[in-house]
Amino acid sequence: MEKLTQLTSKTTVLPIDDVDTDQIIPARFLTTTTRDGIGKALFADWRFDAQGNEIKDFPLNAPDISDCKFLVAGRNFGCGSSREHAPWSLFDFGIRAVISSEIADIFRNNSLKNGLVPVIVDNDTHQWLLANPGAEVTVDVEARELRLPTGKSVTFPIDNFARHCILEGIDQTGYLMQNIDNIGQFENNRMWQP
Amino acid sequence: MGGKTLFDKVWDDHVVIPESEQTPAVFYIDLHIIHEVTTPQAFNMLRENKLPVRRPDLILATMDHSTPTVPINDLSVLDDPAISAPEPAKQIRQMIVNCEEFGIELHGFGDHHRGIVHVIGPEIGATQPGKTIVCGDSHSSTHGAFGALGFGIGTTEVGHVLATQCLLQRKAKSMAVNISGKLQPGVSAKDIILALIGKIGVDGGTGHVIEYRGETIRDLNMDERMTICNMSIEAGARAGMIAPDETTFAYMKGRDKAPQGKDWDTAVERWKGLKTDGDARFDKEVSLDISDLEPQVTFGTNPGMVVSISKPIPNINDLSFNKAIDYMQVKADQPMLGTKVDIVFIGSCTNSRMTDLQSVAKMLDGKKVASNVRMMIVPGSEALKVQAEAEGLHKIFTAAGAEWREAGCSMCLGMNSDKLGKGQLCVSTSNRNFEGRQGPGGRTVLASPETATASAIAGVIADPRDYI
After folding, report:
1. Cα–Cα nearest to A118, from A135, A104, A128, A137
2. What are the residues facing A8 on neighbouring strands?
3. Is the minimum CB–CB distance between A36 and chain B shorter than 8 Å?
4. Which residues of A touch B435 (CB under 8 A)?
5. Which end of chain A is more exposed for a tag (fewer CB within 10 A), N or C?
6. Among residues B190, B252, B116, which one has the least CA distance to residue B431?
7. Model pLDDT for residues B287-307, shown as the tens digit of each residue
8. Which residues of B touch A78 (CB under 8 A)?
């Protein structure tokens, strides 16, 4: 996993509520057995028409999109399917943080395991971000803080352990493997066996 | 110290290392269900790290998502472009290789218990009260119908469970949904859960594990309870649970993987304790009286955009609402009733079980599917297909002009050959009406098997109460 301490970048804004993971990456792209090049499928049906041409006014097709590492989205982003292909495709496309007033549980969990930072902010901050696409903001994982160009800064919740893993660029499997003896003891001492 | 909820009890029973401020709990998983779509990258992770699968005996493996719903007597059938695209065919073959290499029993083609992950777990008796059950599929909440804790995980976590049989978890909050009242004829469990999502919203359960409670739930059979728990995720909930009772035990008894003989009696005694204590507190409570509930249909592009069949679509007029009704080509203040239908899909982990098929057959008996409608009926498993055919249901389906297909996820998610075309409208018994969910440009109306069947006969969205 890529390390991230803090990052300053422009935002791109998708002001739709309840964006589901079927939109982030439609199911027909889940037939891959790797993660290679998965960013191409990001928002495929919103970015491209049936002929494969870019839909000009879709935010992620803006000419300066490669300067935008943060996606500001409507409420309840990432609802629906558990497909980890959703954060994979966002990350591969170049997005490093998703900012919303609410982010769906499974998507949030999957994002944290891939160095994509889910940033949950209060309604006022959310409204400001939605109204100011292209704003240059800083996501500071170390300080758990989002800083706006207005000088305002807000803290965001992030699990201590997930934060540690993102700051150090380590994946979580290692921690589980360190506890393998405890897992064995648990299995041996259970009152019933599955 | 107050009493414990059902969720508390199952949670506490699986904590290997408790959570602290710095670290999540190491949490044990009793049953891991795997399929071809969300596992290949996890198996690659095992190979890269030279790790074995820790407990192949606690894995239930099958193929359902990208599999065609035509007979596959030989894998070479997958090379026919009319049956499967090359990528899903490759994924299916990779699943077979992965299971062989890591010593996992696979319920593949030709196996009596191949089918949709959340159908075969209960069917085979592997889904049991008090178990923790995960799958790389968000509808793992289905298993909560048995008093298990079932939830969906991503592929990284699939790798964690393969390697360690554990997950890193923070405990979710608890939410009680108290349901009262008796269902009217023509109204079903699907209508209950759609109405609930309409009431609390697609994020109403975010961060919570729901427990469905009350007299209505006690009166439901297991298929109906599974339909309700299945769609917990559509309200954003981590999981949905129902305390096990005599209905649960009667369903499970004698199934292949259920405890047998003396072990059965011991297990039932333990399972009887799996209920919320009288003095337990939930973080959130919601009540729903379904006495006057009508059949429900969705009008928009998420399951919370739902109306009673006799009522008009509301008029909300914000960006998300307008985008949804534009996509669906429907109008605010107009009813869904009478909207022309192209496809009717009976199937998915929500509504492809025996009582669903029986209910469809009862309504279709002696009737014809309207000439403008293609009706697909896809059983949830091979075993269900055999059972339905033993009851002669397939004869009713085909005589009415419906297609009777092989088990799989089929048209629920548009990643096998069963897809909606652009602009086509499908009345579907599945769980998601997201844009393009059933195929790019396709329009999905979620409904019960009864409403779907009435609509197939009428050729337009119809009220099942007029057809029973």
Report:
1. A104
2. A138
3. no
4. 22-23, 45
5. N
6. B190
7. 999 999 999 999 999 999 999
8. none
Residues on chain A touching B37 (C-beta within 8 angstroms)? 30-31
Cα dihedral B413, B419, B425, B429 sign: negative
For residue A110, what is the nearest residue in chain B, using CA coordinates?
Answer: B154
Q: Contact, A105 vs B206, CB < 8 A?
A: yes
Cα distance from B465 to chain A (closest Cα, Å)?
31
Sorting pLDDT into bands at 50, 70 and 90, what band is B1? low
For B356-411, how does the pLDDT look when each residue is reduced to its tens digit (9 = 90+)?
999 999 999 999 999 999 999 999 999 999 999 999 999 999 999 999 999 999 99
Question: Any CB–CB contact under 8 A between A144 and chain B?
Answer: no
Q: How far apart are CA B205 and CA B78, in angstroms?
A: 40
Cα pseudo-dihedral A111, A114, A116, A122, rounded to 10: 40
**Tens digit of each residue's pLDDT (9 = 90 or more) over B38-95:** 999 999 999 999 999 999 999 999 999 999 999 999 999 999 999 999 999 999 999 9
pLDDT digits (tens, 9 = 90+) for A143-153: 999 999 999 99
Query: Which pLDDT belongs to residue B388?
Result: 98
Pairing of strands A97-100, A68-73: parallel
Question: Which of the 8 DSSP states describes residue B256?
Answer: T
Domains defined for chain B, CATH in brackets? 6-169 (3.30.499.10), 173-242+270-289 (3.40.1060.10), 298-466 (3.30.499.10)
Which amino acid makes up residue B150?
G
CA distance to partner chain B, nearest, from residue A70 (Å):
21
d(CA B19, CA B38): 27
Mutate to test the interface with A, among B14, B142, B156, B170 (most CBs of A within 10 A): B156
CB contacts, 8 Å: A113 with chain B: 154, 156-157
A109 touches chain B (CB under 8 A): yes
This complex has an ipTM of: 0.96
Q: What is the pLDDT averaged over residues B324-341?
A: 98
Shortest CA distance to B375 belongs to which of B349, B399, B418, B404?
B404
CA atoms within 13 A on the CB side of A162: 22
| Cβ-based contacts of B431 with chain A (< 8 Å) | none
State how far the alpha carbon of A33 is from the alpha carbons of B39, B266, B413, in Å.
Answer: 8, 43, 18
Q: How many CB atoms lie within 10 A of CB B398?
A: 12
Token pair recorded at residue B420: 């909606």
Nearest to B138 among A82, A164, A180 (CB): A82
For the stretch B418-425, contacts whose Cβ atoms lie closer than 8 Å and that sit 24 or more positions apart, written own/partner, are B418/B68, B418/B69, B418/B376, B418/B378, B420/B342, B420/B343, B420/B444, B422/A50, B423/B329, B424/B342, B424/B343, B425/B339, B425/B340, B425/B341, B425/B342, B425/B343
DSSP B279-339: T---SEEEEEE-TTPPPEEE-SSSTTSEEETTSBPP---SHHHHHHHHHHT--TTSBSTT-
Tokens 């969205």 locate to B461
Residue B195 has pLDDT above 70, yes or no: yes
**How many A/B residue pairs have CB atoms within 8 Å?**
185
Nearest to A169 by CA among A118, A109, A119, A113: A113
The string of pLDDT tens digits covering residues A98-124 is: 999 999 999 999 999 999 999 999 999
Contacts of B202 in chain A (CB under 8 A): 18, 76, 79
For A31, the closest chain B residue by CA position comes to B88
Q: What is the rounded distance in angstroms from the CA atom of residue B132 to the CA atom of residue B147?
A: 10
The strands making up A97-100's β-sheet, listed across from edge to edge, are: A117-120, A97-100, A68-73, A6-14, A136-140, A145-147, A153-155
Q: Could you give the domains of chain A?
A: 7-135 (3.20.19.10)
